[in-house]
Amino acid sequence: MNIFPLIQTILYTISTALLYPVVILLIFLSIWIVIYAGGFLAEIVKRKQYRLHGKLSDFLVIIYKKRSLPLEIKDKLPIHIAEYAKNLEDIINSRKPFMEEKIEDLLQKKEQSLEKELSRVQMIVKIGPGAGLMGTLIPMGTGLAGLSQGNMAQLSSNLILAFTTTVVGIGLGITAYFFSVVKQQWINEDRRRLALITEAMTRK
Fold first, then answer.
1. DSSP secondary structure string, 84-110?
2. What is the pLDDT of residues 37-54, one digit of tens each?
3. Residue 62: which residues within 8 A CB-CB, separation 6 or more?
4. Which DSSP category does 77 fall into?
5. Is residue 71 assigned to a domain?
6. Is residue 190 part of a domain?
C-alpha cells in the first residue's frame, strides 16, 4: 500500500489551513507596528527634550551628597529613570535589613523591563519575514494545483496574495529591525545611567 499520497494530502491540508492564520497574523503585526511607530516617534521627541547640559557623570558628586536626583537633573532624564531613582532613594532611606540585596533586585528588575520591551520588537524581526514566506509558499502551492486543472484565475489570485504577503513580511522585518537597533542604543544609554545613579547614591 502506497501511503505517500495520503501523507501528501495531509500535509497539503495542514498547509492550506495555515494560510488564514498567517494572513491574520501579518495584518495584526502591521497594525501593531504602526501603533508602535507612533510611540517610537514620541519617545524620540521626549529624548531630545531630556538632554542634559553636560554628562550625567558631571553630577555624580551632587547625587552622592544629596542621595537623590536634583530637580535640574530629574527633569532632564527619562521618566522611568527618575522613577527608578525615587524607588532607590526610598530603599536607602528606609535603612531596613538586606538593603543591598533590595537595591540589586531593583536594578535587575529595571534592566529586565527594558530588555522585555526590546524583545517584543526583536520577535517581529524574525516573525515578520517568516510569516511572509509562509504566506508566499502556501498560495503558490494551491495556485499550482489550480494550474494543473487549467484554472488560471485561481493561479493569478494566489500569486497576488503570495507576493503581497512577501512584501508585508519583509517590510515588517526591516521596520522592526530599525526600531530594535535604535531601541538597543537607548537601552544601553539607560543602563549606563542606572549604573551611575546607583553607584552615586549607594556609595558610602
1. HHHHHHHHHHH--TTHHHHHHHHHHHH
2. 999 998 888 887 666 555
3. 70, 73
4. S
5. no
6. yes
**Distance between CA atoms of residues 23 and 72, nearest Å:** 50
Q: Which domain holds residue 94?
A: 78-204
Would residue 115 count as lying in a domain? yes
Q: What is the spatial distance between Cα 76 and Cα 146, in angstroms, rounded to a whole number?
A: 62
23-38 core/surface letters (b: 16 or more CB in 10 A; e: else): bebbeebbeebeebee
Calpha distance 190→112 (Å, rounded)? 12
Please write the tens of the pLDDT for every residue from 99-120.
888 989 999 999 999 898 899 8
In this structure, is residue 138 part of a structural domain? yes
Measure the CA angle with vertex 20, ends 15 and 22; round to 5°.
Answer: 80
* Beta carbons within 8 Å of 169's beta carbon, 6+ residues apart: 26, 128, 129, 130, 131, 132, 133, 135, 136
Classify residue 149 by its DSSP letter: T
Q: Which three cell numbers stand for residue 149?
A: 486543472
Q: How far is CA 113 from CA 46, 125, 177, in A?
A: 19, 19, 19
CA distance 24 to 19: 9
DSSP for 135-157, written as a single string = HHHHHHHHHHHHHHTT-HHHHHH
The number of distinct structural domains making up the chain is 1
In which region does residue 6 sit, left (phi positive, over 0), alpha (psi from -120 to 50) or beta (all else)? alpha
